[in-house]
Specification:
This protein is mainly α and 80 residues long. The chain has helices spanning 13-22, 34-41, 43-52. The chain starts with 12 loop residues before the first helix and ends in a 28-residue tail after the last helix.
């Protein structure tokens, strides 16, 4: 194949990187990019990317910093 894509974000980004390495496949020919996949797999990184791009999004912090949010708030897992 000249290019590959994936159906969902549940394939670990590092697994995809390793598969490209083992197959001698240029990871730049994966779309969306593996870097993009890595960001959307981590909900905190995803929210930070939204904020950096000016996209409206709820405030997100690491669980250890949850006291910055106040109540009510929603606690979500970063992965999965």
């Amino acid at each position: 194949s000249d290019y590959i894509t994936f159906e969902n974000e549940f394939l670990p980004a590092e697994t995809l990187r390793e598969a490209c390495r083992l197959a001698n496949f240029d990871p730049a020919r994966v779309t969306p990019s593996i870097d993009s996949l890595q960001v959307i797999q981590d909900k905190l990184l995803q929210r930070e990317a939204y904020q950096a791009s000016g996209v409206p999004s709820p405030k997100a912090v690491q669980a250890s910093d949850a006291d910055q949010l106040g109540f009510p708030c929603v606690l979500k897992a970063r992965f999965g």
